[in-house]
Amino acid sequence: MAPLLTLRDVHLTYGTTALLDGAEMSIEAGERLCLVGRNGSGKSTLLKIAAGLVEPDSGERFFQPGATIRYLAQEPDFSDFATLGDFVRAGLAPGDDAQRAEDLLREAGLTGAEQPDEVSGGEARRAALVRVLAPAPDVLLLDEPTNHLDLPGIEWLESELASMRSALVLISHDRRFLSRLTRATLWLDRGRTRELDQGFARFEEWRDATIEQEEIDRHKLDRRIAAELDWVRYGVSARRKRNQGRLAGLMALRRERSEQRRVAGDARLEAADAENSGTLVVKAFRAGKSYGDRTIVKDFSYRLLKGNRVGVIGANGSGKTTLVNLLTGVIEPDAGSVRLGTNVQMARLDQDRGKLLDDTTLAEVLTEGHGDSVIVDGKPRHVISYMKDFLFAAEQARQPVSVLSGGERARLLLAKALASPSNLLVLDEPTNDLDLETLDLLQEMIADYEGTVLLVSHDRDFIDRTVTSVLMAEGGGKFVEYAGGYSDMLAQRGRGIAAKAAPKSSSKAAAPREKPADAKRRMTFKDKHALEELPKKIARSEAEIASLQAALSDAELYARDPGRFAALSEKLSRTQDELAEHEERWLTLEMLRGEIEGG
Questions:
Q1: Would you list the DSSP string of 437-464?
Q2: Could you tell me which residue, 352 or 172, shows the higher pLDDT?
């Protein structure tokens, strides 16, 4: 089958930096590909080249004539559109299903009448997604599609993408989202691309093995160079003329070594420690907060204890940030009381990246405009040295914030927040725009942090890896605590977070979408075999989940063996995901069989 889209030997240089150095991509019909790489590696640029929006310095782009393509930018442009509905409909081509666009708007919780300058980031993102999903193109290029989406929005998007026949290329920091939707991985590293013929779930293990092999090969090359240098220095002079080829080979080896681009180092994320707080960090008693007639937090009583790592989750607009601001004393309750414990020193990372002024330099952000030193843990440190801990180069110190990517802005805010001594770390959407490697380090930093953590996030995998309990917004201002992470909450609650439907319009209800005439298909041998085997797999998964839950119910396990607790928790999450996939697949096949037999 001929590829729908091909990029070959793509080169692109910005200034003196070779961003893309022979990058390639090939997309076939129905492909499910994730594009991964560090912040600043050129992922978004490569996606724009694939979409035909950026012209490379050299290389070839081929797109199958007659095929259709849609591209989702990180920051869609809503200018010149009076409503979100106008923005969506402008993305339809002649022959596209306009009713599908209207249906998707409603499924995304929108009416289409919303004005772009009055909507939240999540609503704007859902409209941008509907615009590219509605035409059902042959190729969908999505750059950070889960940014600004809440958990219901992410689950809706996962379901919609899973049901589409379009080829997908995804850039995302959401591990669970990538693991569930992709079947191949393209790694953009030091300007070049390498492909793994498996989904993201297998990528990190393969990446680590690849980097380890590179180090082995580099060591072997160093030994060869050393041996050749020894021959040049101490070889017999009479042989020199007839061994010019060997000397040329040495020069080639040294050139190869000098041209190798090493993997960028890891950021060093470490929070500055303050003196210990008291055992009780925050106490809330029947606290409430309302804005006008709308109750945001109602009758909330809670004790946040030293060392707790608490995730606050729920749909957008459910009051998560308001609750955190109540608990940390940023706002006062209308009813009840909230009291901070003794000696609480707080460091915050807010989700508002807009607080960084575009014309301010990186050094000025970190030093607050005073000198060349950052006060870290109460001691002065040169700003360049501190910047390097967060993967910023020395020459970036005098660059304005305006030139930074979204991920670099996130790292800069992290650097600023973590410099302050603290024993209470408040992180509001810290994972937005961070690359996977920095997410890993942030996760490790939270695990090593000796204080208390209050975390708001829509990243299910990150929540599972970092928190000891979650506060779930149940609606109507009510928050309920569940032990464990997001997956544990699902198991205890018995359901996910339901998305809020858009208000019904007064006009006539939209007719349901009709299935195309060829929607029915025969069951293949593979389908029939799967239908027979899936109940056994479901039973095995259920038994394993029961066994893992029994082991985790041991109240002393975490204190006795935190490593085993973490391993069992991770295995439980993975097995629950597998069970959900088996059940969904079985249900799909059962419905297909019923449709065929009934037809």
A1: HHHHHHHHHHHH-SSEEEEE---HHHHH
A2: 172
Q: Given a cut of 80, is residue 298 above it in pLDDT?
A: yes
pTM of the model: 0.66
Q: Are residues 167 and 316 in the same domain?
A: no
Q: What is the pLDDT of residues 478-509, one digit of tens each?
A: 999 998 888 888 888 776 665 443 443 433 33
What is the rounded CA–CA span in Å between residue 146 and residue 129?
10
68 and 123 co-located in one domain: yes
Give the number of other CB atoms < 10 A from CB of residue 413: 22
Q: If 0-12 CB within 10 Å is exposed, 13-18 middle and 19+ buried, where does residue 573 land? A: buried
Determine what percent of the chain is predicted with pLDDT higher than 90: 38
CATH of the domain at 143: 3.40.50.300
Q: Residue 531 corresponds to which amino acid?
A: L
pLDDT bin (cut points 50, 70, 90) of residue 99 is very high
Which tokens belong to 64? 């199958």
Phi, psi of 505 (to 5 degrees): -85, 165
Domain span including residue 417? 280-493
DSSP state, 197?
S
- pLDDT bin (cut points 50, 70, 90) of residue 285 is very high
| 357, 438: one domain | yes
Mean pLDDT of 360-387: 84
SS3 content of the chain, % helix, strand, coil (to 5): 45, 20, 35
Residue 371 neighbours by CB under 8 Å, 6+ apart: none
Query: What are the DSSP calls for 325-352, one per residue?
Result: HHHTTSS--SEEEEEE-TT--EEEE-S-
C-alpha to C-alpha distance for 450 and 276, rounded to whole angstroms = 9
**Same domain for 374 and 459?**
yes
Determine how β-strand 424-428 pairs with β-strand 5-14. Answer: unpaired
CA angle 332/337/338 to nearest 5° reads: 70
Q: Are residues 454 and 565 in the same domain?
A: no
Do 148 and 15 lie in a common domain? yes
Number of folded domains that form the chain: 4
Sign of the alpha-carbon torsion through 305, 306, 311, 314 = positive
**Same domain for 319 and 242:** no
User: At 55, is the pLDDT very low, low, confident or very high (cuts 50, 70, 90)?
Assistant: very high
Residue 432 CA to residue 179 CA, distance in Å, equals: 18
- Shared domain check, 555 and 440: no
> Are the C-beta atoms of 482 and 492 separated by less than 8 Å?
yes
The per-residue pLDDT of the chain, averaged, comes to: 82
